[in-house]
Amino acid sequence: MSGDTIIGHGLGARAKDARALFERYCPNGAEDETRALYEYLCLLAAMDHRDGSDGRAESPYRLVIEYGTPFTCDNSDAGLAAAGLARGQRRECAKNAWRAMSDHRLVYVEGYGRNLIPGTWHAWNHDPVGCRSFDLTWRPDPDTTPAWIGIPFTTAAVTATSGHTGRYGLLPEVALTRDRLHDMIHPCLNDLRAANGQPPIGQTR
To answer: Keywords on this record (predicted)?
Structure first.
């Protein structure tokens, strides 16, 4: 991680923190697009004033960096059709993922993705039985290689949050702390992290 992007945005003072996050959490051997997404999230985490002290909410960027894992999603027409999935509406990623969770018993995943822009909040699905992941929202683009980094959540956590907030999505709507996050993580996370060469998260259940 060169730090050129940080300096270019006047963030030289945060460069050390961003580099440390990147070097600690970006998996070895990650694809270039995934590394770029990690770099982007590390920049945002280094700038975010939330640090989780005194039980306060932590930066969602930092939580996804530390607890999340890279995904390779199928968002092709043929792949979705073969899995019996219907493509969802544009810009409705959390709603699309929530419905696939409910209708097809897929795991709801939320985090950040890189597609036509450097990084954005995003949601998609994972099938732990078939070991496949699906993005019902983003359309394939021949000029772009997407990347996804996220945290799989239990159905109970997703439905409880939606019932409380009246909206889809967890990270933008819920003031997450580490203790609360541990209770919401789907147990398939550690299998995914192992496949990506990452250490397990100790308190998933």
So the answer is: Plasmid
Number of structural domains the chain divides into: 2
- The DSSP-derived string for 126-141 is EETTTTEEE-SSPPP-
Residue 15 three-state SS: helix
Whether residue 182 is contained in a domain is answered as yes
Domain annotation covers residue 203: no
pLDDT tens sequence across 9-42: 555 667 888 999 999 999 999 999 999 999 999 9
Task: Return the closest-CA partner of residue 44 out of 14, 2, 1.
Answer: 14
Res 1: pLDDT = 44
Whether 94 shows a pLDDT value over 80: the answer reads yes
Domain holding 18, by residue range, is: 4-54
Is the same domain home to 191 and 96? yes
Please state, in angstroms and rounded to a whole number, the distance separating the CA atoms of residues 191 and 171: 22
163 and 85 belong to one structural domain: yes
Q: What is the pLDDT of residue 9?
A: 53
Q: Where are the alpha helices (DSSP H) in 68-188?
A: 77-82, 93-104, 155-165, 178-184
* Alpha carbon of residue 65 to chain centroid: 8
Task: Identify which of 9, 4, 65, 76 has the alpha carbon closest to the alpha carbon of residue 37.
Answer: 65
Q: Is 80 exceeded by the pLDDT of residue 175?
A: no
